[in-house]
Write a structure and sequence with these properties.
single chain; alpha+beta
Length: 352
């Protein structure tokens, strides 16, 4: 199987989350995106720099070094790099010597916002100066929010499909997300694609969670409104509204690490009028349990792809959202403007 970076082609030219802000402290931090090791570090003022994690001298990992006066020091021979990636000190050359101006690592553009650090991984010039995505309600003090970081043994397309897949919940999340004993119900659904977004709207007046989720998120048993979105190239957003007061958002940013390996930064935001902060440990436990179940089924599928990477899926009407995700990502790989200009609209029905 060829490398993920080669298969994803033009999708490399995008912003991806490298880490949570709280993960990057006083020591340099290594992250792998599209098979390339990166090193992130802060200067004394807290500004973030991202460089290739490979010293120009003897190619040691710079992330194994330290930060001194805002400079990244290689652990092997002490070469020092400033925030522009320039080598500013070579100890073996003696004091007062100026390194050659050609000794420089090209920094990756990076932006810190909403509690995460984004990195532009592309080989092409930036198309936008900052990541186009903001995590919903991140600055709204009336909402409770937190991140969960999870490694998956699968790739972006399949993970996005999983995160927006309703039929799997009764099997993978049996008893945790939906009640397996509930009577099967028909779900009229609208799938709309426009401007690089697949939006799914479910028209099921009596849809509800399992008893545990119902108790946490919708104790008043108000009518539930559920919408899903896939946002090119690697984001999903799931919204639940219960009546006029309770809201619950699951927003996942999928960072491609290497073949059949991804790191998912799941942003959870919720608003409930009573006991919001006190419910956080219970909601965190619940969401971790559900995500770990997805980890297991995605490993199951990923192991199958390792033995046979061909993907000639047999789809049903319930898979229309998956087909639209695959269509947009196919255009994205090719660098085709249809990834943004394509429009689609289809009404479907499936049972859960």
């Amino acid at each position: 199987m060829e490398s993920l970076r080669k298969r994803d082609a033009h999708l490399v030219n995008n912003w991806y989350v490298a880490c949570l802000s709280k993960e990057l402290k006083k020591k340099p931090l290594q992250r792998l995106i599209y098979d390339h090791p990166l090193v992130l570090f802060r200067n004394p003022a807290g500004k973030v720099t991202c460089l290739p994690d490979r010293c120009l001298h003897r190619h040691a990992f710079l992330s194994g070094g330290e930060i001194l006066k805002g400079q990244l020091i290689c652990p092997y021979h002490g070469w020092a790099y400033n925030q522009e990636g320039e080598v500013v000190c070579v100890p073996s050359e003696g004091p007062g010597q100026s390194p050659a101006s050609s000794l420089k690592l090209k920094p990756f553009p990076c932006v810190e916002q909403d509690g995460v650090i984004w990195v532009w991984t592309g080989v092409d010039d930036l198309t936008v100066d900052t990541p186009p995505w903001r995590f919903p309600e991140a600055e709204n003090t009336k909402w409770i929010n937190y991140f969960m970081v999870t490694d998956f043994e699968n790739e972006v397309t399949h993970l996005a499909e999983n995160f927006l897949d309703v039929p799997h919940t009764i099997f993978v999340h049996r008893g945790w997300f939906r009640d397996e004993k509930a009577q099967a119900k028909k779900v009229p659904t609208l799938v709309e694609t426009e401007s690089g977004v697949v939006k799914v709207t479910y028209f099921q007046k009596e849809d509800e969670f399992s008893w545990g989720a119902q108790l946490l998120l919708n104790p008043g048993r108000d009518p539930m409104i559920h919408t899903d979105e896939f946002i090119m190239p690697n984001l999903t957003r799931v919204d639940y509204s219960f009546g006029e007061k309770n809201r619950f958002i699951i927003n996942s940013q999928i960072t491609p690490i290497s073949t059949l390996k991804s790191r998912v930064y799941t942003y959870i935001a919720y608003k409930v009028p009573i006991l919001g902060v006190l419910l956080k440990p219970l909601i965190s436990f619940y969401t971790r349990k559900v995500i770990d179940q997805d980890v297991a089924i995605m490993k199951n599928q990923g192991d199958s792809f390792r033995l046979n990477p061909k993907t000639a899926f047999r789809s049903t009407e319930a898979d229309e959202v998956h087909k639209e995700i695959e269509r947009l990502r196919f255009y994205g790989v090719k660098g085709d403007e249809k990834a943004k200009s394509y429009k689609g609209k289809k009404e479907i029905n499936f049972w859960i």
